[in-house]
Write a structure and sequence with these properties.
It is a single chain. This protein is of the alpha+beta class and 766 residues long. 24% of the residues lie in helices and 39% in strands. The strands form 7 sheets. A 16-stranded antiparallel beta barrel has the order 18-19-20-21-22-23-24-25-26-29-31-35-36-37-38-39. Strand 19 and strand 20 form a beta hairpin. The radius of gyration is 33 Å and the shape is elongated.
Amino acid sequence: MRNRVRAAMCNPTVEAGMKKVVMTLVVLMLFGAASAHNDSTAVTRKKVAVVLSGGGAKGMGHIGALKVLEKAGIPIDIITGTSMGSIIGGLYAIGYNASALDSMVRVQDWGFVISDRENLKTQTLSDRRKQNTYFFNTGMTIGKRDMNAGGLIKGKNLAELFQQLCVGYTDSIDFTKDLPIPFACVATNIIDNSEVDFHSGRLPQAMRASMAIPAAFSPVRIGDKVLVDGGLKNNYPADIAREMGAEVIIGVTVQGTPKVAEDMGSTMSIISQIVDVNCKNKYEENLAITDLHLKVDTKGYGSASFTHAAIDTLIRRGEEEAMRHWDDIIALKQLIGIDESYRPPILHPLRPKVLTEKQLVKGFSFVNMTPQDERFIRQKYHLNKMDSIDAYMEQQLTTTMRVDLFYQTAECRLMPEGDGVRVVLSAGNRKTVQLHAGFRFDTEEYATVQLGLDAPLKSEMPVNADLTLRLGKRLMARGELTTHPRSFTRPKLSYTFRRNNVDIYMEGDLAYNILYNQSQGELIPINFNLKNFNLQLGLRWDFMHYRNKLGADDSPRVTLKNEHFFSYRARLNYNSEDNWNFPTRGARFRSEYAYVTNDFAKLNNRAADGTVLGKKYGMSEVSGDWRRSFTFGGRFTLQPMIYGRLLFGSVVPAVFGNTIGGEWFGHYVEQQMPFAGIGNMEYVAHQFVAAQLQAQQRIASNNYVILRVAGGQQADQVDELLDNHTLLGAQVAYYYNTMFGPVGATLGYSNHTKKPYLFINLGYEF
C-alpha cells in the first residue's frame, strides 16, 4: 500500500492534481479566516441606521447630508424614510450613493415629473402641439370608477420614474433581505387612519405611496388599503429603524419653522400646513431615540421648490448642516465601535447608468391588452427584432400605451429572467375620452377658450375621433378621424368650420373688417409620422361664405362673392426643438406646396365685381420656414430664421393672398406670416420672402427677454423681389413661462407701419 502511494505521488499527473487540491484548501482556509474576521468586525460594531424625514422638495437636503456621512466613513446598515425621505432612502438602499443621487435629481425635469403630462418627444408633432396648446388635460373612463383618481395629479410620471430608477427591484421583494441595505418606508391608510410600514412589496409602489400628499397626488390603492403620505402618521420613522435592529440612529429632518397666517397664501401652502401639523405624530418620541440629529435649514423653500436653483441650494445646505456636526459624526464612530480611520470595505455600490444602460431582452409579456393593441405595439417598435432595452425605450412603450392606445394607466416593467429581463407591458382600463382645455387672452382678440375631446372608437384597427371647439372672436369647430393601420402612418379625415372676423390693415391703419364663414374638408391618405418628422399628401375642399365687409375702402383684393376651392396639398414638417415656445437647441423646418382649383383642374377668373370671366390654370403656392437655435453659455440663444410664401398663376383669389403681421404663423388666417414690428395683419404682394434674427436671454428659471429684427422683400414677380424697398422691423419682448402658457408683452416698430405697437399675451397660442 505504501509503495502504491509513493508511486502515485511520484506520478507527475497525480502530483499536479494534489498540488491543486492543497492550494485550494489553503485559499479556502485564508478566505474563511478573512470571513471570520469580517464577521467578528460586524458583530463587534453596532448596527447603524439613517432615518430621513418627509418634506417634499426640501428633502433634497438629505443628499447633502449623505455626502458627508460617506466622506466620514460611517457604515449604513439600515435606512428608513417617509415621503421624499422614502424616495432618497429607497434609492440609496438599492445602490445609488450620494453623488449618483445628486446627479440624478439635477438632470430631472421636475416640472414634467410631478405632472401627468405625457412625454411626447417620440410621438407625432400633432400630439406635441396639443400638449403646448392646452394647460389642462385629463382622461376619463365613463361607466367605470377611476381607481387612480383622488388628487390633482395622478402621479403617472412619478410612478414611471421610480419604475425606471428601480430596475432590478421592481418585483415583489423583501426590503430587508433582498436589498443591498435593509430598508423600510411609511404610508398612511386613510380608510382607518392607520400607519402602514413597508418592509416588503414592490419598491417603486411603496415609494409612490409614501409620498402621496393628500389632495395633491392621487392615493395608491393596495388591496383594501387607500394609501397617502406617511408623514400624516410618522414623518420621521426612527422607531421603525430601532425595530429593525438599529443600535445607533442618525436622523436628518428638513422641516421648516412653523407657519403663521400670513404664510397661508396658496393651495400648496395650505396643504403643506395640514401635512406639517399632522406630521408631529411620534416626532418628539423618535427624536428622543436619535443619537445624532441633523436639522437642515430649508428657510425660503417649500415642498414644491423643484427648481434647479432650489435643488442646488437645498443639497448644499444639507451638506453644510452635516459639516457643522463633523466632530460629532467622527465621535459617533467610537459609539459604533470603529476607529476614526475606519472606512466600509465597499462604501456603497454605484448605479449611475441605470437610465442609460441596456438590458438584454429575454421576451415580452402583455397584460390586460387586446390582441389588436399587442399587434400594434409589436409592429410599431419591431419587438421581434428588439434584443435590448433601456429606460428611454421603456418610456416610449409606456407613452404609446397611453397616447396611441388610450389606456388610462399603463406600465412597462422589466422583470429579471436569467441573464436578462422580461418586458411586461401592463395596461389598465381604456379611457373613454381625453379632455383638453385651453384659455388665452391678448390685446387683439381679448378672451378665447378652446376645448378638445379625444375618443377612441371601438374597432379592430385603432381609430381616434378628435373634436375641437374654440370660442372667441374666431369661432372654430373641428371634427377629425385618424386611423393607425401601421406604426408610421395615420390616414386622416377632417371637417372644420370657422367663423372668421378679420381686421385688415394698410400700413398700420385699419382699412376694413371682413366677416365670413369657412367650411373645410380634408382627406389625407398619406400621413407619415416618424420622430420629429411628418409628411402629408392629401386633397382639400374649401367653401367661403362671406357675411359682411365693413370699411370705407372698397379694395379689389376682397370680393364678397361666395366661392369654393379644391386643392392638392403636400406638407413636410420637421421639428427637433427642445422647447415649443422657448427653444434653446434643435431646428424647425416646414414647407408646403398647394395647387388650388375650382374643379380639380382650373380656377375661375373673376372681375373686380366678382363676375366670372372664364377659367384659368390653377394657382400654385410654395411656402416654407426654417429656424435653428444656437445657445451660448446655457442661457443666451440666437435663432436665425428664413421664411416666405410664393404664389404663381394668372389668378390668385384674395382669400389666399399673402398677409404678414403678428407673432405666429397662421394665427388669424392660415397664410399669415409673422413679421417683427408689425402687430396687425396686412396684405403684401404675391411674392414675399423674409429673414429674422432672434436673441433670447433666459433670466432665472422661466423668465425670457427676447429681441427680434426682421427684413423682408415683396414683389408681384419673383425676379422683381430685389427691386422694391426693404421692409424692416424690430421688437423687444418679455415673457414668463407658466404652466398655463407664456405670459408677457411685446413692443415693436417697423418702417412699413411707421408706428409702435404694444401686444400683451397670456396663455398658449391657438
